[in-house]
Amino acid sequence: MKLKSIAFAAAALIASQAHALTPTDMNAAATLKVYVGGASALSAAIGGLLTQNCDATTRTDYKQTGAATFGTIYSCTLLPVNDFGITGTVAQRNIMFQKRDAGGSGIGVYPVANNTPIDFINPTTCTGPSSGTGTCTSLFLKAADGGVSDVEPAMFAAGANTPVEFVGTSVGSNATSQAINQTVFGVAVTAKLYAKLQSDQGIAATVRPTVSQAAVGQMLRSGFAFDTIAWKLLLPNTLDGTQNSQVTICRRVNGSGTQASANRFFLEYPFNKGALQEPSIAADSTAVAHGTTAASLFVVENSATADSRNCMTAADTANGFAIGHISLENAETAAWKFVKVGGQEPSRDEAKAGRYAYFFESTGQISKTSAANVKSFLTSFFNGAGKPDNLAQLSAATQNGVMANPSICPDPFGTGTANEVKFCSRVTRNGNSAEFPAFFR
């Protein structure tokens, strides 16, 4: 009874001291600091998992001034009972978790495996918070403690999947890797193209149009005859001039897991080594003038998922047609929508049952040279990121883009708790690298 009374008193003390973490709290020596790079497609799931284990009154996010898509610093006091097994005093449970989005999944592999410092937001330059959000003014070089990837690390050994900074570099041995969950991807089109597809297919405005996997693959392929084919592959029944309007492709940078997934799914890369359409514009997508000029092609390279969303919005605003690859955890907007692929509905429920094939297994990498408590935290974090009960606490949009791996789910498929039925997948793409020639492993 005495021990229980002490525990209640401690809990009351914690509650009375709770406040939004300031930069001073965040940078305190006792705060657990974790630096993770990699897949921007997983950022919503990562942020959701972390913050659902936070005392909401202490939560503060920090962004880099002028570079909101670079990444996020999440800071908070973890709840006394959390998914990560962190216990102790209030100060010891404070956490600063930085997720870098820039560069994509390959940045969640190479820097961790090779112990190569990369840019992170410098937390000592942060101020605020104002309305729950703070700002930071500079970056600094730091060895990553961990990384996340939309696909397994071996897929980045193929040249066009490798981050530009690590071309010619072998994947090192400084990291361990573990499965996290499955990410479901989609083909996005601008709202104007979406409506044109509905008209071409003779379907109502409430019905989602479809595109064929082969047609999208052809438009992504090197040597695509855009000047004569343009949008005819997707709009075969449209006889007005829009068939010949400018083709904009909102792709991702080399090293992006979303791009590696698209390369594998639509182009059979790296088996088909000459398949990829090279980007014609490697710049901030928001600065590109998307138009409707006939017989023109813009292949826009985007660093993060948010940049791809911006690319789609810019194209639609300019009355242009565009296609892109975005994970389903991103909610559709008035400017762009997901389409069916080969008649398959883009959704978690269709994917988990094996009726929608555009998904890949995500992995988490942990640096062998990070502090023991950081490695322990990341192991628990990655384990927690795949549990159905945790996936169920994410936002509705995020939930539509993630599935739990069959290895942690009940058998047979469709049994178990309500959350297991909702998120557990019966299919997996585990071991894609086993399909590669030996030099890709």
Q: Could you please describe the fold and organization of this structure?
A:
The termini are far apart. This protein has a 15-stranded mixed β-sheet that branches. The protein is built from 14 helices and 17 strands. It has helices at 2-17, 23-27, 43-51, 90-93, 110-114, 191-201, 213-220, 257-267, 305-317, 348-352, 372-384, 388-391, 396-399, 418-423, and strands at residues 32-38, 60-64, 71-77, 94-100, 118-121, 126-130, 133-136, 139-142, 146-149, 175-190, 210-211, 247-252, 297-302, 321-327, 336-341, 359-367, 402-403. Helix content is 26%, strand content 23%. The model is unreliable at 1-16 and 432-441 (pLDDT under 50). The protein is globular. The protein has 441 residues and is α/β, with parallel strands linked by helices.
Give a quick summary of the entry.
The chain is α/β, with parallel strands linked by helices and 441 residues long. 26% of the residues lie in helices and 23% in strands. It has 14 helices and 17 strands.
Distance between the termini: 57 Å
Helix percentage: 25-40%
Question: Radius of gyration, Cα only, in angstroms?
Answer: 22 Å
Q: Identify low-pLDDT runs.
A: 1-16, 432-441
What's the count of strands?
17
Q: What fraction of residues sit in β-strands?
A: 15-25%
Q: Supply the helix-strand structural class.
A: alpha/beta
SS field, number of helical segments: 14
Shape, principal axes of CA atoms: globular
Report the mean per-residue pLDDT as an integer.
Answer: 87
Biggest β-sheet: count, sense, barrel? 15 strands, mixed
